[in-house]
Specification:
Layout (H helix, E strand, L loop, with lengths): L1 H19 L2 H22 L5 H6 L1 H40 L7 H34 L11 H23 L4 H19 L1 H7 L7 E3 L2 E3 L6 H18 L6
Antiparallel strand pairs: 1-2
Helix pairs in contact: 1-5, 2-4, 2-5, 4-5, 4-6, 4-7, 5-6, 6-7, 6-9, 7-8
């Protein structure tokens, strides 16, 4: 019985993963990642002046990471919004196929796990890209094990935005709902980049990635997962009473 239940979980998660990777989604992902890579290359500037770099290498590192983290947050917001819109536009008819013999909670959890797997893979890729360029181009740049926490920070930030988006989408099923979260996320990152006071205050409760003393950090790393969990519980509650029909 447990084996059958486990196989059912795996099948649902696999189906939702395949469901996300539609042709249009793959194109958006590919274009977004390509522009993100090009942005990182432009920011790091492979033709930088080595004499100036040797005078103050830390300033080069700080500038690269601060600008790259801002770009990263924008593209991650786009990717999260894309997945949220996909779930909103077509998953109702997809979910309705399973509701006769599958609990709604299982469908909800399968969606979240599928999205989480994707976000984790993206976080690992972005970590490699984010640190790979300076390791190759900056002679004085070093990385230790503490930098691996960046994966958890990126993943946590994406999961939080996703939780907000799907709650808004299931509450107000409109294509503009996840766009609102994307807009607010961009505004949040712009303000936190421009104003240190907003970064310090907002960073206590919101997933804001910062570069300080040679490391990427996120002050709300312990609070953000709790908020995400609470938002997912709200999503479960709304989804369990929502009328789902095949369209």
């Amino acid at each position: 019985m447990r084996r059958k239940e486990g196989r059912k979980w795996m099948n649902l998660i696999s189906l939702y993963l395949n469901y996300v990777f539609q042709k249009s989604t793959v194109i958006i992902f590919f274009v977004s990642i390509l522009f993100m890579i090009l942005s990182f290359i432009i920011i790091i500037n492979p033709n930088f002046d080595m004499d100036f770099y040797q005078i103050n290498p830390a300033s080069f590192h700080e500038k690269y990471f601060m600008q790259s983290l801002f770009v990263l947050s924008i593209f991650n917001g786009i990717l999260v919004t894309t997945i949220s819109i996909i779930y909103m536009l077509q998953s109702n008819s997809f979910d309705a196929l399973f509701l006769s013999y599958t609990k709604r909670s299982m469908l909800c959890i399968s969606k979240i796990i599928a999205a989480s797997i994707l976000f984790l893979l993206l976080s690992i890729f972005e970590f490699v890209l984010l640190y790979g360029l300076p390791l190759i181009l900056y002679p004085s740049f070093k990385m230790d094990r503490k930098a691996l926490l960046t994966i958890a920070y990126i993943f946590s930030a994406m999961l939080f935005d996703f939780a907000l988006s799907i709650v808004l989408v299931v509450w107000i099923p409109n294509i503009f709902s996840p766009m609102v979260i994307l807009f607010l996320s961009i505004v949040k990152n712009m303000l936190s980049t421009s104003f240190q006071s907003i970064k310090d205050i907002g960073g206590e409760i919101l997933p804001i990635l910062c570069y300080k003393d040679g490391y990427i950090s996120m002050q709300s790393i312990y609070i953000t997962p709790i908020f995400s969990l609470l938002l997912f519980l709200v999503y479960f509650s709304i989804y369990n009473i929502k009328d789902i029909k095949i369209t």
